[in-house]
Specification:
The chain has 264 residues and is α/β, with parallel strands linked by helices. It is built from 7 helices and 12 strands. Helix 2 packs antiparallel against helix 3. The chain binds pimeloyl-AMP (WAQ) and magnesium ion (MG).
Length: 264
């Protein structure tokens, strides 16, 4: 079948760093992942380059922009996680909510506390996520500072997602991108929970995502800190190679419109 270029779907993604490329020791500045039609590529490429140049973590001197056609038959559709929100008085209180939520999701106490400690004491920002066993807290991937980089995902309707979030008073790009990413991550059967906070110095809200929901928690770090990261807590004996393949390569669109209708 002949299809117009305008009907095709593309993965467009960017990663940027400072002090050289990531693989040459540069420090991670920012990244972005979208899945869109050809008509959006030019605008998004411009926005992604601008993001790398104007980030609060500094001006990137290395930018990798990748554009790749995705086979539409391979697109998988997933529901968006529902949102809960916890506002706390301090980082310590926020992190207590983290531990409680991880325990509820089936993460062992030592793994929950150990994971939190690891994220809080990272010597450098990774550009992806580390994988920890939910029972022992042992790191299961051998991907060093790279970790697993979730890719090839987007919402199926950006404008509707924005409106749905704003209805709940959640504004801005951080939450929009994070809930799409978390919805993909938790869709892998052996992932029990995800913990994240941003490496952007001014963004102190983080989250724990579980199979049931996406819990935003404010604050999870001190204002001004440029350290952040992600942990995927998985069941013991998880096939890490298979998980990496799914999270990095399977194209995914999240956000059944049916599920959003009740909010309008
Ligand atoms: N895949 C895996 N890990 C990633 C990815 C990715 N695509 N992108 C970033 N990371 C890791 C990496 O270690 C970063 O240093 C860290 O996560 C933080 O990334 O509801 O903005 O993009 O308001 O700074 C949470 C929103 C925002 C909470 C998180 O993360 C809310 C955020 P950032
Ligand atoms: Mg960031």
């Amino acid at each position: 079948m002949n299809r117009e270029v305008s009907d095709m779907v593309y993965s467009i993604r960017m990663r940027s760093s400072k002090g050289g490329a990531h693989e040459c020791g540069g420090s991670h500045i920012s990244g972005a992942e979208r899945l869109v039609g050809a008509d959006k590529l030019k605008e998004l490429a411009g926005l992604m380059i601008e993001r790398a140049f104007t980030h609060t973590k500094g001006r990137a001197d290395f930018i990798r922009l990748t554009i790749e056609q995705v086979e539409e038959e391979k697109l998988k559709r997933l529901p968006l996680l529902s949102i809960k929100n916890s506002e706390c008085d301090s980082v310590a209180a926020g992190r207590k909510v983290v531990v409680d939520t991880l325990l509820e999701a089936g993460v062992a106490p030592s793994a929950a506390r150990g994971g939190l400690e690891r994220l809080a004491s990272l010597p450098v920002n990774m550009r992806g996520a580390m994988v920890l066993c939910c029972e022992t807290g042992v790191r299961l991937d051998d991907l060093g500072d790279r970790g697993i980089r979730v890719s090839r995902m987007d919402s199926d309707d950006e404008e509707l997602l924005r409106q749905w979030l704003e209805r709940q008073e959640y504004k801005g790009l951080h939450v929009r991108e994070a809930i799409v990413l978390a919805s993909k991550v938790l869709s892998f059967s052996d992932v029990v929970a995800e913990l994240c906070w941003s490496d952007d110095p001014e963004y102190v809200t983080g989250y724990v995502a579980t199979k049931q929901f996406y819990r935003r928690i404010t604050p999870l770090k001190e204002y001004g800190s440029a350290r952040g990261g992600r942990i995927f807590f998985v069941k013991p004996h998880t096939d890490i190679a298979e998980m990496k393949r799914y999270l990095e390569e399977q194209p995914v669109l999240v956000g059944y419109k049916e599920a959003w209708r009740e909010y309008f």
